[in-house]
Structure formats: structure tokens, C-alpha cells
Design goal:
The protein is about 45% helix and about 10% strand. The chain has a five-stranded parallel beta sheet with strand order 2-1-3-4-5, with helices on both faces. The chain contains nine helices and five strands; from the N terminus they run βαββααβαβααααα.
């Protein structure tokens, strides 16, 4: 049976490139449009740049439905977006710069495995890598630098406030800071995307 694949989140150029790669594999059936009434794809290939359009609502909806394995296509200059997707439970990650063979291999494996088959070590590299931050800690710090409260971050990551506090202590220890303002300063120096209305004086 063919593996049914849908492409989402991407602009015309990237979507065209992905479709060209996918259509070159005879065992893959690529949907012309998505969502497609009455058809649930085995794999949704989602360009993480789409998260910027709706703050992840569409992508996280696909993940939460658990009807299709979600493979996120990461951007080298925005590792935070892919890390955020993986923290929410995407099945797999592949870089936009990956070879055609690697893209197809990840999709085939995602179609045949349970969601979440990739280990954290295969998650997108980039932000916080030298400090030894985990992808979830990167997502957490990304929320802090944008000015979100611990409660808002907990809701966003579907974690308890106490778990968020534990992640904060771990992340602060790794980057050598002790206050929220110091964490924001460190993040901005490392290339985290700043948010509107950030109040670094709110120390946790």
C-alpha cells in the first residue's frame, strides 16, 4: 500500500520543492491539497516556518489529533521553531538542507513507527547547543525572552507549573544565570528571537 503524504505550512517555493522530492518516490502518494475531505494522510510534512503565521495552532492541532505522523522540516536559522514542534510531540525532524534521500528516509520511518520514534539527540541543533540545553529548555527560554509568565509557558508546553520551574532551574544552571533578567540577556546574546513587551525585570 502507498504511504499517503500531505505537505503543510510551507510557502509556494518550499512546498514545490518538497512535492518534487516526494513525487519521485513511487511508494508515496502525495495529496494535491490538504486538508483533503475524507482522506487522512499517513504523514504530514510540515514546514516549521508555518508556526509564525498562527503561533503553531495548525501544527499543534495535527500533532494533538494523532491521526498522522508529523514530520517537521526545520530551518537552520530558526532552530527554536523545530525544537518547539518536537517538544509538542512531532514524530520526527528533518532539516530543510537535508538531502533528498534523508528526507525520504525520515518520512518512510515515520510512517512505519509509533509517534516520537526520534530520540532527543536527533532533534534540531542550534540555539543553546554549546550550553548543553535540551530542546525543551530552548523552548522554555524562548518563552521567557518573549516575556511570557511561567504559567503561560506551562500552558503552551502542556506541562505543569512545577515542571516548568524545574526546567527553569536546570536551564539557568546550564547557562550560568540566576535571574530572569540575566536569562533574557543571555538569550538575546545567543540569538533567541526577542518578543514584544518583554519585561526582563520580572525575576523568577
Amino acid at each position: 500500500m502507498a504511504i499517503v503524504v500531505a505537505v503543510a505550512g510551507a510557502g509556494d517555493v518550499v512546498e514545490g520543492g518538497l512535492r518534487s522530492i516526494l513525487r519521485g518516490a513511487p511508494e508515496l502518494e502525495v495529496l494535491d491539497r490538504f486538508p483533503h475531505f475524507g482522506v487522512i494522510p499517513d504523514v504530514v510534512v510540515y514546514d516549521v516556518i508555518g508556526v509564525e503565521a498562527d503561533d503553531g495552532a495548525e501544527l499543534f492541532g495535527f500533532i494533538a489529533e494523532q491521526q498522522s505522523a508529523v514530520v517537521v522540516v526545520g530551518r537552520h536559522l530558526r532552530p527554536d521553531l523545530a525544537a518547539r514542534a518536537m517538544a509538542h510531540g512531532a514524530a520526527a525532524y528533518v532539516s530543510l538542507e537535508a538531502s533528498e534521500a534523508d528526507v525520504l528516509a525520515v518520512i518512510r520511518e515515520a510512517a512505519g513507527e509509533e509517534l516520537g520514534f526520534q530520540e532527543p539527540s536527533t532533534w534540531p541543533p542550534g540555539l543553546g547547543e554549546e550550553a548543553g540545553l535540551s530542546p525543551r529548555e530552548v523552548v522554555l527560554l524562548g518563552g521567557i525572552v518573549k516575556g511570557y509568565s511561567n504559567v503561560e509557558i506551562a500552558e503552551h508546553m502542556s506541562l505543569s507549573p512545577n515542571t516548568i520551574k524545574s526546567y527553569i532551574r536546570s536551564a539557568y544552571r546550564k547557562i550560568g544565570v540566576s535571574t530572569r533578567s540575566q536569562a533574557v540577556s543571555w538569550c538575546l546574546q545567543q540569538g533567541f528571537e526577542p518578543g514584544n513587551g518583554v519585561n526582563p525585570a520580572l525575576d523568577a
